[in-house]
């Protein structure tokens, strides 16, 4: 379920000096380094969502993008999600990443993840040529002009000693290349943990990095999925796991101060119910405790799996990739953790977004309008880019203008057709500025619609489905590719059991 699961200006002599097999990209001008304290939740890159839009809606400036892996075992070419239709190029996420950077944030591309680490498609497991691995890392850095790469190493990859050694040797090559070009490139390792720190294979991975001269800037603990059949206070377990990691780092890096060691620590939570089940549930109260602890300790990175789960769409349910399994408002966890970036809770300049009216009832075929009001709440006015989401099938939403200066207004128009389905829908208008983002919601009720209702039988959690069977769920028809029980349509990813046949 969890898949966790710039101009090209380098001289060829500099590339040769570090032994890189360059892939058509050189030492791009240095990207802006990440803050020393950063909140960067994971973004599930296979969903078709826009990272820039979700970042704006959630008020999140930085994202960890999951995942990069090869399309098949033995390959040296990484793709987003191992999908050959999603190469490392500006055409894939380039526009979104530039938008995030222009808003003062950035992304951290993550190599590996659970699927790659169990199928031999994590690039250092798949590719036996260290220079090609290094060239792949470099291509991601220069294509997206980013300053940190993440290595998600777990399950089988964590015991692949040859792959571990290749990866660390490649990291060393890239770091030498970056230094020669005058740019800063950080590397984080995302690793599973016990409640008291890394297991032996995680410690061995870090020792190998030290022996290869590969600098590890952050060790990011996955503080969830303990699978030990014990009761858990997830906030308390985060603290003990991180203390265990601190002790390990102190042994590996004896010359670092306590503050420097804590600033090598990262923590990734799984919000709500994790894969083990309700016994391992991170509540909003837990999240606030973790936030306060993270600020006090001065850790480097705070994250969670995953941005698309930060909503209460399946309270009382099991772990899923599109909801947290607990009762919450959309973006509650993001709002708790977002102030961690930069260590400030109040932006110098800020604004608000409101809708008037905030609801309307229309007959299918009619339209409704509302005024989008923005206001300066702190400091000076800033440019606010407006976007709208949530319009149902048979309806379209538009904003005029799509950008205002805080204090200005825009008009939201919702137009429906006779093909709309009767019901009440939540439409969200989001304003994004340099200080972050704010949203307001609009309740649109449609009557008299004659759109098609789903005719396939609704998906049932406790029913066994076999290949070819169809169900309806969340307004879409789905077809099972093989035997399945309990896997919710829409949560299994493009390679999962359910094929999306489209809206009903």
UniProtKB/TrEMBL annotation:
GO terms for biological process: chitin catabolic process; polysaccharide catabolic process. GO terms for cellular component: extracellular region. It catalyses: Random endo-hydrolysis of N-acetyl-beta-D-glucosaminide (1->4)-beta-linkages in chitin and chitodextrins. InterPro entries: CBM5/12, CBM_sf_5/12, GH, GH18_Chitinase, Glyco_hydro18_cat, TAT_signal. Residues 37-344 form the GH18 domain. SUPFAM superfamilies: (Trans)glycosidases (SSF51445), Carbohydrate binding domain (SSF51055). Its EC number is 3.2.1.14. Residues 1-30 form the signal peptide. Gene3D superfamilies: Carbohydrate-binding module superfamily 5/12, Glycosidases. Keywords: Carbohydrate metabolism, Chitin degradation, Chitin-binding, Glycosidase, Hydrolase, Polysaccharide degradation, Signal. Pfam families: CBM_5_12, Glyco_hydro_18. GO terms for molecular function: carbohydrate binding; chitin binding; endochitinase activity. It comes from the Bacteria. It is an enzyme of class 3 (hydrolase). PROSITE patterns: GH18_2, TAT. This is chitinase.
